[in-house]
Amino acid sequence: MRKLWDSKVSRRRLIGGAAATGAALPVLHGLVPHEGLHGQEAEAAAEHIAERHAAHRGSGHLGAIGRVDPRANGFDPHEILRDFDEGILLGGVREWEIVAEDWEIEVAPGVKYAAWTYNRRVPGPTLRAREGERLRIRFINGGTHPHTMHFHGIHRAASDGVPGIGPGNVGPGQSAVYEFDATPFGLHLYHCHSTPLAEHIAKGLYGAFVIDPKGGRPPADEMVMVMNGFDTNFDRSNEVYAVNTVAFAYMEEPIRVKREELVRIYLVNALEFDPVNSFHVHANFFDYYPTGTRLEPRDFTDTVVQGQGERGILELRFPYTGRYMFHAHVSEFAELGWMGFFEVVN
Ligand code: CU
Ligand code: CU
User: Fold this and answer.
1) Average pLDDT per consecutive 10 residues, the chain (346 residues; last block may be shorter)
2) How far, in Å, is the centroid of ligand 1 from the Cα of 194?
3) How far is the CA of 128 from the centre of ligand 1 (A)?
4) What is the number of helices (H) and of strands (E) in the chain?
5) What's the 173 CA to ligand 1 centre distance in angstroms?
6) How far apart are CA 165 and CA 176, in angstroms?
7) Closest C-alpha among 169, 159, 76 to residue 123
């Protein structure tokens, strides 16, 4: 028997239905029942959702109804945005301690997700170093499954964090040390590489990894945006999309930036199950540095597409004050949470 909730087709059908009522979508996904609903049960659930949406008809509300409490999650997307973890520099070695833990998070109002986390955050801490430094990461697995830390960059096999090579699979209660040099400069990422790989990443084990060029970059208001999604019913497709985990967080509370100040966005695509993601900003254009490994921008554009694991640096200035939307240009992702505002002030 076909399960209504188990395929992208049904997900899109739900979206179509909601659009017809002019309703806000995340509410719908807060109501999506877990897999296993069949036939009449499923139809009844769909009707219930349609009724809920009819109740919001014409409200013109974009975004979620309700709010995720950052205190419950233990992290706030607004803090993650400008939080760069430079670790501790000791005797010429830059060092971090990272703990993997099972940790339940709320990804949209009322939508809980049993995540696997690095340092109880999704995304994990944004690790930041300077080109050429020696880096040491002490990894402790406090979770219930084997995990690793696999860094993008240039290093020896023994530090690659892949099962079977060096400190590959780190079992629950075990620890490992990864040591390598910070190269090349740019914007990279790290993630778990245990199998099944898609699940270990989708559960939340990823983070941004910034290596600054030796000469640095021009001063700017810097922020990290890790594009992600959550498969809340384990059907290998995402029901919730976001930047830095919480759907619509930057709609509810826009990101404040100063008019004419240089804004630098470290944009990482950590999405699983969907092959591409994108970033689009309204009423503006940005310089784009793919992977951040060259100091000259490749593009001057307003939309950039990233495949899985792809990332790049965006630089822009807002010439006018006001509210400017940014969102995935994959419209479906935008409506399911990947949408926000910049609030440009004097
Ligand atoms: Cu893992
Ligand atoms: Cu990777």
Assistant:
1) 36 37 37 40 45 44 77 92 97 96 96 97 98 97 97 94 84 96 98 94 97 98 98 94 97 96 98 97 98 98 98 98 97 95 98
2) 5
3) 22
4) 8, 21
5) 13
6) 12
7) 76
